[in-house]
UniProtKB/TrEMBL annotation:
Its EC number is 2.3.1.48. Belongs to the HAT1 family. InterPro entries: Acyl_CoA_acyltransferase (IPR016181), Hat1_N (IPR019467), Hat1_N_sf (IPR037113), Hist_AcTrfase_B-typ_cat-su (IPR017380), Hist_AcTrfase_HAT1_C (IPR013523). Catalytic component of the histone acetylase B (HAT-B) complex. Has intrinsic substrate specificity that modifies lysine in recognition sequence GXGKXG. Involved in DNA double-strand break repair. The record marks 179 as: Interaction with histone H4 N-terminus. This is Histone acetyltransferase type B catalytic subunit. Keywords: Acyltransferase, Cytoplasm, Nucleus, Transferase. It holds the Pfam family HAT1_C_fung. Residues 390-415 are annotated as: Disordered. It comes from Candidozyma auris.
Length: 415
């Protein structure tokens, strides 16, 4: 069929030659037992454009596969029919974003390459946290060496997941020494560690004050930029483990003065809120039985923020959750009015400009609506934590995510 004729055919029935790139692309991760875990991308617009469509093919199917240990990519593109003159070639688009080691179409070559790479495989990085066990599996977290050839190669194999699973995600400049890449592995079979997920963080320089500056003291603001757990491994609290263990690692680093997150989505905000809340209660940094609204002065906030390396917004959210938790679950019972005013003060400051032109009744009504909406969302975040705590106590255990709430739940249970 000539180019002119093929375009004429396509113009009559364009929908038959148009595919959703989200639906056409299938991602597979093959584990060490030979099982292939299949999932679809959340986004493909960074690759195929805002419409997330590919024109010029019938029956288009794109397969992007990875080995769970080496993460060596395999790409194959299949279709039933194709126009001769196409604007977007999915093969070329994807190969531009994948490392040169990617194997195209030759599955036997891919499997042979995996087998060769897995021989005496060594993770190209340094272990940064103690190994831990979750649901009978062993895990470890490594900081990748982005100056070594093998570390850079693994980074290049992983990074396409940023485009496919993080909205507005982009590749980092791995040559910039201020970037850090942390990879979480399942190490149940120590000889074949399997990738679970990864996080990137950027180290921003912070002026330490004249005295420390003159003495050469380095201060850093650590910003989490990207955070990915492989879809087939989600729902096991592994993302929470990765975030919590990295946070505790950074708490021990005297150079780091603040830990922040770049444009978190709602699901990461939830994870962060629950982990931070649990950690602070579990480690007795906050005592829910004695914390009072009147004790939270500007000086208290500044001291706590510095000690826990929390950004101001996150600390404000956590304090509001602490007090709302007390109202609903105990053990302390603060004044409802005091808690309401504590939260509304922040809401007013945040929305001062928008509220400034309103009359007093309208202003109060909008603040009350905002308060009720925020309180409802906080309780949505807190409820699973309290349920796990009570379930843990009923079962006679105190492990997992509920451990930090054991005493609170026990007292509430007695009431």
């Amino acid at each position: 069929m000539s180019d002119q004729m093929s375009m004429a055919v396509a113009s009559l029935q364009p929908e038959q030659w148009t595919a959703s790139s989200n639906e056409a692309l299938s991602i597979f991760v093959t584990d060490t037992q030979g099982k292939a875990h299949n999932f679809s991308p959340l986004f493909t617009y960074p690759i195929f454009g805002e419409a997330e469509t590919i024109f010029g093919f019938k029956g288009l199917r794109i397969f992007l596969c990875f080995d769970s240990v080496t993460f060596l990519p395999f790409l194959n593109v299949k279709f039933d029919n194709k126009l001769e003159d196409i604007e977007v070639d999915p093969k070329s688009k994807l190969l531009e974003l994948l490392p040169s080691s990617t194997v195209y179409k030759d599955e036997a070559k891919w499997r042979d390459s995996i087998e060769e790479e897995q021989k005496n495989y060594q993770i190209p990085g340094t272990k940064v946290c103690e190994d831990f066990t979750k649901n009978g599996e062993h895990y470890a977290i490594y900081k990748l060496g982005l100056t070594s050839e093998r570390g850079i190669e693994l980074h290049k194999r992983l990074q396409i997941l940023v485009l496919l699973f993080i909205e507005a995600g982009t590749y980092i400049d791995f040559k910039d020494p201020l970037w850090d890449l942390y990879v979480m592995y399942r190490t149940t079979d120590a000889s074949l560690p399997e990738v679970v997920g990864f996080a990137t963080a950027y180290n921003y320089w912070v002026y330490p004050g004249s005295a420390d500056f003159d003495s050469g003291v380095e201060k850093i603001r650590k910003k989490i930029s990207q955070f990915v757990v492989l879809p087939h491994l989600q729902g096991q609290s592994l993302g929470a483990e990765l975030y919590e263990r990295l946070y505790k690692l950074w708490l021990q680093d005297d150079r780091i003065v603040e830990i922040v997150v770049e444009d978190p989505n709602e699901s990461f905000d939830d994870l962060r809120d629950r982990v931070d809340f649990t950690r602070l209660v579990e480690e007795k940094k906050v005592d829910l039985s004695t914390l009072k609204v009147e004790d939270v002065t500007p000086q208290w906030i500044e001291t706590f923020k510095r000690r826990e390396k929390l950004e101001k917004r996150q600390l404000s959210r956590l304090l509001e959750m602490f007090f709302l938790h007390q109202l609903k679950y105990g053990p302390a019972k603060p004044s409802k009015k005091a808690v309401r005013l504590f939260i509304k003060r922040r809401l007013f400051e945040k929305n001062r400009e928008a509220l400034s032109g309103l009359d007093e009744p309208t202003k109060l009504d909008k603040l009350q609506t905002a308060y009720e909406s925020l309180a409802s969302d906080y309780y949505r975040i807190l409820e699973p934590l309290e349920k796990r705590a009570k379930r843990s106590i009923d079962n006679g255990t105190s492990g997992g995510d509920a451990e930090g709430f054991e005493s609170t739940a026990k007292k509430q249970k007695k009431e």
